[in-house]
Design brief:
Blueprint: H1 2-33, H2 40-59, H3 65-72, H4 76-104, H5 110-124, H6 128-134, H7 137-156, E1 158-161, E2 204-207, H8 212-218
Antiparallel strand pairs: 1-2
Helix pairs in contact: 1-4, 2-4, 4-7, 4-8, 5-7
Length: 219
Amino acid sequence: ELKKGIEEDILKRKTDTAQRAFEDAVLEALCEKVEGEIPDCMYDSKAKENVDSFAQRVSQQGLDLDTYLMYMGMDKATFEQQMRERAVNDVKLDLALEKIIAAEEIKPTDEAIAAEYQKMADMYQIELERLKTIVPETTVAGELAKQDAIKLIVDSAVVKPAEEAAPAERPPRKALNNPPGGVPYSKQQSNHFFAEKGTLNHGFSTVYHRTDQSRRALL
């Protein structure tokens, strides 16, 4: 029984890792579909949000950001540059998801919103009504809609073997992984909404297929 349990646990971990890698590749492909000029101020704003969110997460471990970076042997300029690079993908992903949400008319139910509030209240050990005064319902609804849009994207995605994929015209985008020390970046300031992305190491390329409505929305 013990051996069987260990084997099942290992299999589950491998499956979860592969699924996260697949989702990461799908979202990366989606970001590359976003075209047009995006104002630098949007990247700057998202980068600041990422820095502030990361600092908040570090503070929950009893450290300020400067002390954490000192322990990790990283200067603040390098850290902020990493956050700026991450912000580019974040902004592109948000814009793409907004288009898909609108095209597919994705809207979370009242029950889903209530369940998410309760989940947050339990996670952060905070009174439900107080939480609602801190996190607006529009924020919760917006993040749930993004989750649904991501699920739609991933469920609609297919893969092609690497040898069938068109040759890359440019080097692959630099992976945006967690920083040294194991404190993960937050996808959003409310860090419970998105699981962190991993690095794709599989021998295939991802081809993203949207519905006709979503495809037109991204053109």
